[in-house]
Amino acid sequence: MSDVVDVVVIGAGLSGLQAALDVHEAGRSVTILEARDRVGGKTRSEVRPDGKGIQEIGAAWINDTNQSHIWDYCKRFGLTAVVQDIQGSVASEDAEGNCHFFPYGELPRFAQSEVDSIQAIRDQFEAASLDPETFKQPKRGELDRITLEQWCRNAGATDLALKTAAVWCRGTLGQDPCEVSALAFLEIARGALGIVNLRHDGKHGAQHLRLQEGTQSIAIGMAKLLPPGTIKLSSPVSSLVRVSSKLCLVRTANGQQIKARKVILSIPGPSYKNIAFDPPLPPRKFIYTTAVRFGCYVKYICLFKTPFWRDLGACGLAQSFRGPLNHCRDTSVDALGNYALTCFLASEPGRRWFALSEDDRREAIVKQLGALFSVGYEKVQSELLGTITTEWMQDKWAGWGCPFPAPPPSTIGAGEDGDWLWEKAGNIYFVGTELTNEWRGYMEGALRSGKRGSRQVLADLLLDASSL
Prior knowledge:
Elements: E1 4-10, H1 14-25, E2 30-33, E3 45-47, E4 54-56, H2 68-76, E5 81-83, E6 89-93, E7 99-103, H3 112-130, H4 139-144, H5 148-154, H6 159-173, H7 182-191, H8 195-198, E8 209-211, H9 216-224, E9 231-232, E10 237-244, E11 247-252, E12 257-265, E13 276-278, H10 283-291, E14 297-304, E15 314-320, E16 325-330, E17 339-346, H11 347-354, H12 358-372, H13 377-383, E18 384-389, E19 428-430, H14 443-466
Parallel strand pairs: 1-2, 1-12, 2-9, 6-15, 10-13, 12-19
Antiparallel strand pairs: 3-4, 5-8, 6-7, 10-11, 11-12, 14-17, 14-18, 15-16, 16-17
Helix pairs in contact: 1-9, 1-14, 3-6, 3-7, 5-6, 12-13
EC number: 1.4.3.-
Domain Amine oxidase: 14-458
Cofactor: FAD
């Protein structure tokens, strides 16, 4: 069958590119079909209007110690790491709008009883996420039947501790703790080496480094390692037919038809709805892809003349129980005069903010930043050069959301440690940053998932050949 490619990969994000590279390096033929007119998936780096460097519309943070795959590419492509600023104070706003600063690495200056409750919930969550027994039956099933909010209540959380957990959950998923399986969030924390490391911006933490050239440059570099013509852009897949146990027919919306021995699906769960599967996906996979969902998650990047927040000893990190922003981080690159705060609008406060007019959105954020950093509205307004807003919720190829989807209760608790989530369906295989136990939701997780998928495919190709 000379007209049959060994592997078709659907999606040119990091997991799809990694899988394709592994297949190519193993001497197998591979074609990538990508719906967009670019590679990178949810890595998307946008040049500032004034040309002073880039800001990240999508995935932004890495580290150089426990994220070995992504860091290897950074070194290979000669990319410039920017250390996330944690020198100074964090700004905090309570539900009534009262603001204060506290040192990075400590807890907000609430009443001691509340601080103790927050610390107790954090420590219990840390212990549970790092305990292997948490993810085995019957505990696994029990945790999947309750929400993260119920888990916190069962652990004795006070109202303020629940609000703190909401900041974690909103900041990670754009969803509230009452919407997400407790098991799912514990798995996310486990994959990042604990809830503390998941939220940490220092060495070894999930938000330690950014890239001056932009994270999309990794995907662009990976694409260049593949033979010319491997990647077909603007080629959304419309249907996927399993002709037999050893042959698939992939059709695109623009009329292409490709026969493949194996297909690797590297797109977010909610965007499976864009493809007609014949035969349908297995029942458990179908239930997962219809139940898993994105929350409301918007980046609103404010570009400034100077890093004015540093004048008060602030590092640019802020969190709010009130909204509209859930948290923000300094995403400046000082060497380029690229000064910015990236504000994250999430969940219900984010939805209310997103419904406002463009001018009212800006007003709301400027006022809140002025209060958070104790400089006032006029100061922030005078420093503001412009804004960039992400629009992932309008992107069907992203699954209408960002950064990665999470399941509600009673979706993923079956089996042992969730391996069924990436079980193959005949000669179709599933990868993506949501389908990994390590660094789920991060670029590192995407690469690891891509490598896992390619190993499955290559092993089965050898089995197929030996059975002829």
